[in-house]
Design a protein that fits this description.
This protein is mostly beta strands. The protein has no helices and 11 strands. The strands form 2 sheets. Strands 2, 4, 5, 6, 9, 10 and 11 form a 7-stranded mixed beta sheet that branches. The chain has a 4-stranded antiparallel beta sheet with strand order 1-3-8-7, with no helix packed on it. A hairpin with a 4-residue loop joins β7 and β8. It starts with a strand and ends with a strand.
């Protein structure tokens, strides 16, 4: 069982930056791809970004491309989400995900492991 704990959420003004962290309970390199999702009030959970186990490839939702950057430090079993140029529509609970197949890392219908989430609020 992989346990994931997100941190770094908070309140930030539009145009500002924030960095989220997701710490895993065990080594994830060569075992899991990592991803970030978010869920705003009244909306379904949506994909934000994902990174290959080695860090050699990444995926981004169109809504965050060019503003967000996902990275990982396998020595620390931690994945990060650097969020720049934040907008009010980025307000949501952000969840960390660990999954084995790269083909399903962007979905919420498969398996994998999820963290409990961290709140990000962007004010106008």
């Amino acid at each position: 069982q992989v346990q994931l704990v997100e941190s770094g959420g908070g309140l930030v003004q539009a145009g500002g930056s924030l960095r989220l962290s997701c710490a895993a309970s065990e080594r994830t390199a060569r075992s899991y791809h990592m991803g970030w999702f978010r869920q705003a009030p009244g909306k379904e959970r949506e994909f934000v970004a994902a990174i290959y186990w080695s860090g050699s490839n990444t995926k981004y939702a169109d809504s965050v491309k060019g503003r967000f950057t996902i990275s990982r430090d396998n020595a620390k079993n931690t994945v990060y989400l650097q969020m720049n140029s934040l907008k009010p529509e980025d307000t949501a609970v952000y969840y960390c995900k660990a999954d084995t197949p790269w083909s399903t890392i962007t979905t919420t219908n498969g398996g994998g492991y999820w963290g409990r989430g961290t709140q990000v609020t962007v004010s106008s």
